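>> received
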Amino acid sequence: MPIGKRIPIARPVFDQADLESVTYPLKSGWVAQGPWVKRFEQAVASFCGTEFAVAVSNCTAALHLGLIALGVQ
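>> returned
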């Protein structure tokens, strides 16, 4: 089926502030580490009501850390 004929499940909506929030770290070169990741980790920790949070690059890494935290060997 041609792409133009598909019915989207969800269409994301981004405003200018969202686009700037994404492009600034990309332009600064701080993508995998640095101040933006630190701010994200602090925001997640605050949201979850915990002292610390760790951002990882993918779900496999997150699951791996979760299993380690639970003591699974």
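>> Residues 35-48 form the longest helix (14 residues).
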